[in-house]
Amino acid sequence: MSVGLDDTIAAETVLSHVDGRAGSLVLRGLPLDVAAATLDFEAVCALLWDGFTPVAENTRQTLATARRQAFARLGPLLPALDGLAPIEGLRLLLSGLADESDLDPAAQVTGAMPVFVAAVDRRRRGLVPVEPSADRGHAADFLAMLNDDQPDPALAAGLDTYLVTVADHGLNASTFAARVVASTRAGMVSSIVAALCALKGPLHGGAPGPVLDMLDAIASADRVGDWLDAALERGDRLMGFGHRVYKVRDPRADVLKSAVARLKGGRIDLAQKVEQAAIDRLSRHKPGRHLETNVEFYTALLLDRIGLHRSVFTPVFAIGRVAGWAAHVMEQTATGRLIRPQSRYIGPMPQQAA
Ligand code: ACO
User: Fold this and answer.
1) Is any atom of ligand 1 closer than 6 Å to the C-beta of 39?
2) What's the CA gap between 287 and 289, in Å, rounded?
């Protein structure tokens, strides 16, 4: 038995392959760096969804339609967002999607995500939602809906690279949650809500906000060492480091680091110093654990540079990852069995009669 299922293979997939020792990620036959350099988010959806749904043929148009339909559902739900954190607001809006929509289910949930995240963030700022447009790509349209403005093409391209980079990643906790629910035949919307609930946790998709908090707290290069030492002495985990599968640097960190560098500005110099010092210290504090930079470290830098508020970092992760979740739900439905592992009972047994 392996608590945490590290050594368990629970599904066969054609969608992505994570090699934790080599530090490589393959998206349906394409190395991540090639996918990030050559595909936009819609093309990654087409790649992942091909063979599972006919809409893979024209994802750009179908996603634009799905964004419009999600926007039409928003009105009555908006007041219910008040007082909720953005990730909770997103969970509420997603739960409100109808299982029996006239849209393709993968397109429905993927198209809805940027509309809902933008609406949730605008509500947080006391602003009304902005309509989507079929004239823009998915990433650019999200920024337009968020800011009610024509997005800077460089920032939209940076966000698009991010969405591609996080689109799929093997049987991570949220994808596994989606596949478990899909295996009961509960349907796409319920599977995606389950995935979002798993993503929310700080050990999974909730880390980039705290990465930025850490950079804020460190503030300047001369404080890096002392701050990290004190955090590790307290037993804190350094957010943005360590991974269940990667025992070397996460390949997504490099793709995102390049994307931040292309945008210039931001806090990349301080971040690089923190990264190096953190890896050095983690190797001393946790010898043999191989704790390296994970995807969330440069995610925080990139999303901050794009101008996103840290409270929507995890919801924005979901805008990209939903492409993979939807593909896994379709794959599980097409090829999988009900997922039903066993537990080992270690509690008391009934007393034998004397
Ligand atoms: N900082 C300090 N210590 C760490 C860190 C870290 N970031 N990560 C792991 N460790 C330590 C643990 O305290 C533990 O030490 P111990 O054996 O002395 O008790 C040891 O390393 C192993 O930790 P586990 O929790 O067993 O390792 P696991 O594989 O379960 O952890 C995880 C993976 C959850 C990502 C972990 O590295 C972590 O908490 N990182 C910080 C949060 C983070 O960045 N999350 C985003 C992950 S990427 C993603 O999901 C998209």
Assistant:
1) no
2) 6
Q: Is 296 a catalytic residue?
A: yes
| 201 Cβ below 6 A of ligand 1 | no
Spacing, Cα 28 to ligand 1 middle (Å): 28
CA of 300 relative to ligand 1 center, distance in Å: 18
Closest ligand 1 atom to the C-alpha of 169? 51
pLDDT digits (tens, 9 = 90+) for 34-85: 999 999 999 999 999 999 999 988 999 999 999 999 999 999 999 999 999 9
User: What integer pLDDT is reported at residue 354 of this predicted model?
Assistant: 64
> How do residues 76-135 score in pLDDT, each as one tens digit?
999 999 999 999 999 999 999 988 888 999 999 999 999 999 999 999 999 999 999 999
- Overall average pLDDT of the 195-210 stretch: 90
309 flagged as catalytic:
no
pTM over the 0.85 mark: yes
Nearest CA to ligand 1 atom 2: 237
Atom of ligand 1 nearest to the CA of 204: 50
Mean pLDDT, range 175-189, rounded to an integer: 97
pLDDT at residue 336 greater than cutoff 90: no
